[in-house]
Specification:
By secondary structure, the protein is an alpha+beta fold. It has 19 helices and 16 strands. This is peptidoglycan glycosyltransferase.
Length: 594
């Protein structure tokens, strides 16, 4: 009985081991398939890869006709394989992928050879990627570097080799590869660097194009011409080794003329405005063709505004823990004349003037006092700032003290918080919200008392446009930066301003006088210039996180914000300090040509 039992246990043990082996095998296969499915899930489509996807060039002009920026990339003619020069094909194969016509998308021999050379050199001196793999990277259209992406590129390479011929793969690659200075494809590169189509390029010129494939930005003639020419010689040497050119040709090479490119794409150091223009353009036209966009930006005012912001920020920014600034200058009918979205476009392309929603602080009081004037208040009415508590909220003046009684106008020009809250409560927050809405500030809550002190977040461009309504005699215009858009000789769009009266002339006159006195005697004194007729209002949010000054004269309105992207408090910065000083710096000795 015991013996039989042991035998039985042994039998079942063998079966269990066999089942476990099969289970592991199946599990491994299932896991492998699952991984493949996961990797394939977000692979890009290659069905339209043969299509010519050239993007139109878009040129943006200032109001004086100067070029501000060029958008879109330069594409030459999309050439079939039969039209590509044989010398170019041989040069690319010789330097990039000698076994291109032999491998199946991934050159395992090339990978092992590169790994050996890199190990011996102690650094990366060779790469093992094939032309097919490089085309895979182009298809992904993003520079992500990860293990997952490596596997996906390999899978895509196998798919490309399975669907397309070698000639088709090489054709797609040479028509799409980036070659620096906005050039995509070998024909565009030839036209940019040699001022000729690729079919007319010399042996040395196609060798230079092939040389740039490794690192087009680093090997450009502007950045590293000596190294570019050394690699050109290496291309020609490899072509000779592969039998593509004779010894005689190799011994008689010449250095071709390479036309240097101006790396500047326009006049703007900080092209926040042209980025905004590209977004606004899509409201009017579909960018499917070459476009010229004529804007309202005044280049010399843009330069002056940038200098003014930089000057004041360099003096006070660091000591006051103020890292960012934004500004919008517009005509009083809301045509944007200059725009700054941050202190450095190179460091951050986020446009704080257009997209950042921040608390405007006391600059929001414009809508409280406007609504109050429209609902029975007068400038000489008496108000007070004795302490008040609304629910769990007890508003305070910035001085932490109360003055007592004062006039309605004095409460505005001295930016008294408690008096403002009482005025808003008396007329009703719904009236404040409605007034703001008429001037382009939408969605202001009607049941949060703190909105009267600017707790509702807004964009600088919208606040500046709201103040421009007072400067424009009560007529509201949607802010815009585009005058017209053309293609060739055809005009696709022309700006038409549809002004809407949102404030009566009588109320405008009163508000205008109150803002003039704010600059003369109130919180905006630092923005005043002798002999100038400036009007405006300061704004400071809680804990000095945001500071604004928005002011205007008879021709233009300027809104300025300073603060920090991480919402850190500044060191006592109010709208009456840095923003007001930037405003004054900009308008000092400003001469406006007729």
């Amino acid at each position: 009985m015991t013996k039989k039992s042991n035998k039985k246990r042994g039998f079942f043990s063998t079966r269990i081991i066999l089942k476990l082996f099969i289970y592991i095998l199946l599990s491994g296969s299932i896991s492998f398939i699952a991984v493949i499915i996961w990797l394939s899930r977000d692979l890009p489509s290659i069905e339209t890869i043969e299509r010519d996807d050239s993007q139109p060039m878009i040129t943006i002009y200032g109001n004086d006709g100067t070029v501000l920026a060029n958008y879109g990339d330069a594409y030459g003619n999309y050439l079939p394989y039969s039209k590509l020069p044989k010398t170019l094909i041989h040069a690319v194969i010789a330097i990039e992928d000698k076994r291109f016509f032999e491998h199946s998308g991934i050159d395992w021999r090339g990978i092992l050879r590169a790994a050996l050379y890199n190990q011996l050199a102690g650094k990366v001196v060779q790469g093992g990627s094939t032309i097919t793999q490089q085309l895979s990277k182009i298809i992904f259209l993003s520079p992500e570097k990860s293990l997952k992406r490596k596997f996906q590129e390999a899978m895509l390479s196998f798919r490309l080799e399975n669907i397309f011929s070698k000639e088709q793969i090489l054709t797609m690659y040479l028509n799409r590869v980036f070659l620096g200075n906005g050039a995509f494809g070998v024909d565009a590169a030839s036209r940019i660097y040699f001022k000729k189509c690729i079919q007319d390029a010399s042996l040395e010129e196609v060798a230079i194009i092939a040389a740039m494939l490794k690192a087009p930005s680093r090997l450009s003639s502007e950045n590293n011409e000596p190294q570019l020419l050394e690699r050109m010689k290496l291309v020609l040497l490899n072509m000779n080794k592969e039998g593509y050119i004779s010894d005689n040709k190799l011994d008689n090479i010449s250095i071709p003329k390479i036309y240097r490119q101006n790396p500047k794409k326009g006049l703007l150091k900080n092209p926040y405005f042209t980025d905004f223009t590209m977004e606004e353009m899509r409201l009017f036209v579909n960018p499917s063709q070459k476009l010229s966009i004529y804007t309202t930006l005044v280049p010399f005012l843009q330069e002056r505004l940038e200098m003014s912001v930089a000057s004041v920020m360099s003096k006070f920014g660091k000591q006051k823990n103020t890292k960012q600034a934004a500004a919008v200058l517009m005509s009083n009918d809301a045509k944007i004349m200059a725009l700054i979205g941050g202190t450095s476009y190179a460091e951050s392309q986020f446009n704080r003037a257009i997209k950042a929603k921040r608390q405007p602080g006391s600059a929001f009081k414009l809508f409280v006092y406007l609504a109050a004037l429209e609902n029975g208040f007068n400038t000489y009415d008496v108000v007070d700032d004795f302490p008040i508590t609304i629910g769990n909220w007890t508003p305070q003046n910035i001085s932490k003290t109360s003055v007592g009684y004062m006039s309605f106008e004095e409460a505005f020009i001295k930016s008294n918080n408690i008096a403002t809250v009482k005025i808003a409560e008396k007329i009703g927050l719904d009236k404040v919200s409605e007034a703001a809405d008429r001037l382009g500030i939408h969605g202001v809550p009607k049941n949060i008392p703190s909105i009267s002190l600017g707790s509702h977040e807004v964009t600088l461009i919208d606040m500046t446009a709201a103040y421009a309504v007072i400067a424009n005699d009560g007529l509201y215009n949607t802010p815009t930066g585009i005058s017209r858009i053309t293609t060739g000789n055809s005009e696709l769009y022309r700006m038409t301003k549809e002004q809407k009266r949102v404030i009566s002339p009588k109320i405008v006159s009163i508000m205008d006088g109150m803002m003039r006195n704010t600059v003369l005697y109130g919180t905006g004194k630092r923005a005043n210039l002798e002999g100038q007729n400036f009007k405006g209002k300061t704004g400071t949010s809680q804990d000095y996180r945001d500071a604004l000054f928005i002011g205007y004269n008879n021709t233009m309105t300027l809104g300025i914000w300073v603060g920090n992207d991480d919402n850190q408090p500044m060191n006592g910065v109010t709208g009456a300090t840095i923003p007001a000083l930037i405003f004054k710096e900009f308008f000092s000795n400003l001469y406006l040509p007729n």
